[in-house]
User: What shape does this take?
Amino acid sequence: MSVSIPEEILEQAGDCSFGQRCRHRSKGHPKCRVVEADGEKVLYLKQAREGSCVYLTKFGHAHICRCPVHFYLYNHKGRR
Assistant: This one.
């Protein structure tokens, strides 16, 4: 099942190498677990998924997500 996300948000995440799979609620498409949201489009992650993501930044032991779709889902849909 896909979640409705505004077109402008989807366009901002056009570089997603995972095809924006986080829009789906199935177990086969897990998202990185969020600890906290901060600022504009910044998520601090508990643990990042394996693989290469253009929106993931590692800073020391921290994982920071800047994905517009993931930020929208976390803040507007309550999906962690």
